[in-house]
């Protein structure tokens, strides 16, 4: 028989069908398995016909791919890795700011470039698939994984995720620098009660369709080739066992043609943790019938599923569907024709190269958000000759890089990524290094750690005070670190840990100007610094170039323009607090404090100031097929050139179901020179003014809508007008 599957002149579909027809049931089920490549890989390749390994690095990729070529059908292995803000587990690779940080840039082109660079570096190491982007909604800061999200707004998440997917996957997968993206974790994963990671998410179908589905649907539209099911359960059904979610909605309703991967051992946990399956066999059966195509890290899946099919308990057609979805992507990636083996010589010139580092620096600059700047204390004036740089995050590589990079993922249940010991930290520029470099011979940097991030390290505060007393200005670099973020790291408090607040209060007492730089995975409850610091720069986990970027902003080489994509609570008791809330709360406030966040969604200062005026709606009576066109004049009335992020919100005034007080519908990044004014036009289709009605249908209800334009989601920052939407 002619081996069509080996012949690139046939289509991926034809080659997939040909190959599928040649495969035994064991070979098909093997393709559906993904395990950690450091475990018994030879048995997996030759006896279990494995389809994919994750978390393999270095030369081992070449060895495993070559072994796979020796198997009966020679099906190449798909290698996956969590390269979620750069290929950050690989020593020497470019580490970008965390996803939450990057989101503050509101810059789709930048995020596409970040993903493109990541793809290029991932490819150099023989891998083909990143488990990114995270499309979860970050509404409860207690949740350990908020740093992995793009923030709290479904529209913005969809737009930013789409950009990253484009960057990873390129124009098409046959481009040798394209990798598979993965939209995760489908769905409602960030909405678990009390911020408890992977627990139950109490969301109705209407809420899923209104808030949680739209950004995932955008991912399908952007051509995302893989989806990962969430660990969480919705209404008692774990996502991995939810056929309505994975098959009815994702594959049938939205026409998703790629494959679904279950999360790490979630199929095992259906039995051992979530206990919806009395045996592992039952769990495997559930997972396949629900629509999971690849099973991550449940090694028992292979034997159990082979037995289920052989005993006639599971239809082979389901296996065929899953297996062909996986094979087709392997064909599309061109893996059957070119194994894309790593080229470690070439990789040396691309991985972490100067151009990529430049992009990491630019991304860090655009990711930072200026939260306070009293009396224009920033940028630092030429008169500043001595800076006291103080705090536990001045020189902490791990806090700066954040989760899913060197030094993380070390928790029970998972093998440690052992190449950490070989990780080269020399290219990482901490704030201390960045400030020293930028200060040069003109500005002296006096450094004292002052205290650690945890209780047992408070003894050096006095030295920090002495140092502060000698200086013209204090820059305190505080926040959190990796052990306070990530999976299994949910929190009950969002306050500064250890002696950090004591340190800040003691520094304040010196009477010297106090600038606080936050290096943290996610918003913390920091009302004291809002009251007492002279300036606050939110730097998040700014990645390998973070120190240079902080220095550039503090010294005024760069005018910050980031805006928050997530609200900062005043107190953990406010959680969740987000801007697109529903109306109807009696009193609209707690007994002890307002419901207003400390810093709101969309907020961020600049060294410039922008004035909005003259908002106009081009036509305020619209039908469903129209576009809403809004214009507004924005003027830079400050002394610095800058970029303003102009935001458009809408409220459906009366509707058949409660709808948010405002929802972001569009935005524009506008460059404005000092003194320059521009008329900014934003257009959105009337169809985007939709809601999900009580029958779970997405519709636009005719009536009055309030349209708001401005520089943040706060009422005081918005100009308003109304429009009428009519049926015809
Ligand atoms: C996480 C996923 C990740 C996977 C592989 C899981 O525990 O939830 O986001 O992609 O591990 O590392």
Description:
The chain has a six-stranded mixed beta sheet with strand order 12-17-16-15-13-14, with helices on both faces. A five-stranded parallel beta sheet has the order 4-3-2-1-11. The protein has a five-stranded mixed beta sheet with strand order 19-27-26-21-22, with no helix packed on it. It folds into three domains: 28-81 and 127-340, TIM Barrel, CATH 3.20.20.300; 353-565, Glycoside hydrolase family 3 C-terminal domain (Rossmann fold), CATH 3.40.50; 610-726, Immunoglobulins (Immunoglobulin-like, Sandwich), CATH 2.60.40.10. Helices cover 30% and strands 19% of the residues. Helix 7 runs parallel beside helix 8 and helix 15 packs across helix 21. It is globular. It is an alpha/beta fold and 728 residues long. Beta-D-glucopyranose (BGC) binds at residues 82, 131, 184, 263-264, 487.
Percent of sequence in beta strands: 15-25%
Q: What is the overall pLDDT average? A: 95
Q: Which shape, going by the Cα principal axes? A: globular
Kindly give the count of domains.
Answer: 3
Bound molecules: beta-D-glucopyranose
Strand order, main sheet: write it out. 12-17-16-15-13-14
The largest pleated sheet is described as: 6 strands, mixed
- Whole-number radius of gyration? 26 Å
Briefly summarize what is shown:
This protein has 728 residues and is an alpha/beta fold. It has 21 helices and 27 strands. The protein folds into three domains: 268 residues, Alpha-Beta Barrel (TIM Barrel), CATH 3.20.20; 213 residues, Glycoside hydrolase family 3 C-terminal domain (Rossmann fold, 3-Layer(aba) Sandwich); 117 residues, Immunoglobulins (Immunoglobulin-like, Sandwich), CATH 2.60.40.10.
